[in-house]
Amino acid sequence: MQLHKLALTLTLSALCFGCRVRVSRWHATHVAASMPQPILTTSLQAAVEEVKVLKVKIERDGGIHPKEYGEDLADLVNIVEKAYGDSKTVEAVKSVVEGHELALQFMRCDRVDGFDEMHQCRDRVLKKLFVKYPDFAAAAKEAVEGEELPYLSAGLDKEAVLQAIWQETGKDTDALMPSVNPEFHAEESQQSY
């Protein structure tokens, strides 16, 4: 009789453990599904996809040519202007686009005639970048610390500045992924069980 009770207790314990695991997974899946998800309209999804495509083009070998960058960015701006849906996602996409616009402005300063004019142009863009990316501001100022330069940009490597901007826009683009792929949250919470 005691052996029967022990077997029954072990069986019930095993069943209850299995129930808890299933209930936990059900809870994670259904609670994540019932949580309000961002409204991702077709236009907003298109904007996010274009931001991702631009990130890939920048990261490929050889980088992106300024002309191609300008054309892609112009197309992206048109798409983002028409995007609507979840306000946080729309603002995040616009923020990424703003970073790219500043990078393009910085690149285009090379076309300005004259050394002083070029660095004045770059310094104007750097001021905007410093407001948008405070960590970048600190790193840039630290890089030229102790140097007496007529222009901050004269002490900075152009390619290093562009890479720093693209690193920031890349982080912002990666941060968009959970809002574009709501299953990401459910998968993440299921893996923790």
Describe the model.
It is a single chain. This protein is mostly helical. The chain is 77% helix and 0% strand. The chain has 9 helices and no strands. The protein has helices at residues 2-34, 42-59, 66-82, 87-108, 115-132, 134-143, 158-175, 177-180, 183-191. It starts with a helix and ends with a helix. Mean pLDDT is 78; it is low at 3-24, 26-35 and 183-193.
Short descriptors:
193 residues, mainly alpha, disordered C terminus, disordered N terminus, 77% helix
* Secondary structure category: mainly alpha
Give the distance, in angstroms, between the N- and C-terminal Cα atoms. Answer: 36 Å
Order of helices and strands: HHHHHHHHH
Low-confidence stretches: 3-24, 26-35, 183-193
What is the average per-residue confidence, as pLDDT, rounded to a whole number?
Answer: 78
Strand portion: under 5%
The 3D shape can be described as elongated
Number of extended strands: 0
Rg, nearest Å:
25 Å
What profile does the largest beta sheet have?
Answer: none
Count of discrete alpha- or pi-helical segments spanning 4 or more residues: 9
Summarize this structure briefly:
By secondary structure, the chain is mainly alpha-helical.
